[in-house]
Amino acid sequence: MARIGIVGPAYSxxxxxxxxxxxxxxxPQFIEVPNEPSRIMLRSTPGLVSxxxxxxxxxxxxxxxxxxxLMLVVAGTDVYTVTTAGTVSSIIGTLNTSQGIVPTASNxxxxxxxDGQYGYYYTIATNTLTQIADxxxxxxxxxxxxxxxxxxxxxxxxxxxxxxxxxxxTWNALDFAAAEGDPDNVVSLAILNSQIxxxxxxxxxxxxxxxxxxxxxxxxxxxxxxxxxxxxYSVAKCDNSLIWLSNLGVIYRSQGYQAQRISTHAIEESIxxxxxxxxxxxxxxxxxxxxxxxxxxxxxxxxxxxxxATNMWHERAEFSEVDTGRFDFRRWRGNCLCYFNDQIIVxxxxxxxxxxxxxxxxxxxGTAIIRMRRTPHARAGNLNRIYHKQLxxxxxxxxNSMTPAIPMPDPQIMLRWSNDAGYTWGxxxxxxxxxxxxxxxxIDWQRLGMARSRVYEIRISDAARVSIMDDDLEVEAGxx
Length: 480
Known about the structure:
The chain is mainly beta. Strands 1, 2, 37, 38, 40, 41 and 44 form a 7-stranded antiparallel sheet that branches. Strands 3, 4, 39, 42, 43 and 45 form a 6-stranded antiparallel sheet that branches. β20 (204-209) and β21 form a beta hairpin.
C-alpha cells in the first residue's frame, strides 16, 4: 500500500506539475499522543449560525463587546447595539462613511471608532455615539488603546497621536511622535505587550511607555523591523504575536523584534498575481487550542487561514455563483469578529447578519458548507505508468450535522482525479458517508485506471461532519 497524502495543507504553485494541493474548509490537526494509526488528521471548519440580522443587505463593518450584555455593531453607516438574546436596538448613531472596515478600541468607559477620516466614540454609560469634534483630532486609519490613551495614526504621515487620558473626545496637536527610523508613512497600529507597534509602508517601529512628561511614548532602541505593511487592516494579534501582510507580498509574524516569515511560496505566488492587496483584511480567533489568522482579499474574493498550532494554511470559502451560471469558491463571509456572550461572533461582509462560529454546525448562513481536498501527485519515481487498483480513506462515518438537529439521511463524498496536474478532470465517483449512526463504514474506490502522475480530489457537499485520518492507495507497476 502507498499513501497519497490526503491529509495536508493548501499548497498550489503556478507550476501545477510541482504542486497543486488545495485544502478548503478543512484544517489539519496533529494527534498529540503516540500509538494511534495516524499522527495528523483533517477536521471540518466551523459553521456560521445566524445570531441576528442588524440591517439587511449591508456590510457589517465592526463588532465589539461593550460589556453589560451588549455588543456594538456597525452596519453600513449605522451603529446599533445587540443583546445576548440577539435583539437589535434602534439606531444609536451614524458614521460619515458606508464602506470599509471600522477599527475600534475600548478604554472601559468609551469605545472609539475610526473610519479613515473621521473619529467617533461610544459612551458606555449613556449608550450614545458622538463624532469627535476636536479640531486637533488628526483622523486615523486604525485605533488602539494602551496605558490610558487612545492611539491613532495620522493618515499619509509618519506621526502617531494620543488622546487625553481615558477621553476619546480630547486631542492635542503636540501629543504626537514620529516613526523616524525610515521616511515611510504609518499605515496601521497595534498593541503587543503594552507597546505600540507602528506599521509603516516599509518598516515597523515599536514604541514603549517611557514616562516622559511631554510625550509618554518613545521608540524602542534597535527594534526597527525592515518589513513594512501593504494593507492596513491585515494586522492582527494572534497567538501572542502580531501578523501582517508586508510590502514584499510576504506574510510575517512577530518574534520578539524580528519578523518571521509564515507564508509559503505557494501563497506568495498567489498574492503576487492579485491585482489589489491593499484592501486585505484580517482578524484572528482561538478555538479548541487552535489560533487562526484569517486573511481575506476582497477584490480577489479569496480567504486564506493560518493555524498557529500547526503552522499550516488552508482556505475558507463559500461555494456560490460567481458568474452567470458558473459556480466556484469565493471569499468566506466573515468580515469582522469579536468575542461576546462566551461565543465567537462574526459579521457578514454583505448581508447585514452576525453569526456565532459553531464547530457543531455544517452550515454557513443556512447553506451546507462544501469541503474539498486536493492531494499531492501520486507517481512513480521514474514516471512510469502505475495501475491504481484501489483507494481507501480512513475517516469518521455516521456522524452528521448537529445543527440543525435533523441530520442528512445519507451524506455523500465525491472522488475525481486528474492525470495532467489538475488542468482537466475525470468523472465524479460518489460514495456514502453513512447515515447517522452507521459508524465504521469502509469508503473505497476500485479499478481507477493507469497514470504516470495523478492528483486526486475529494469533495463533500452535504452537511456532514468530516474527520479524515489517512488513505491507502493500492497500486502495481504498469508500463513505460
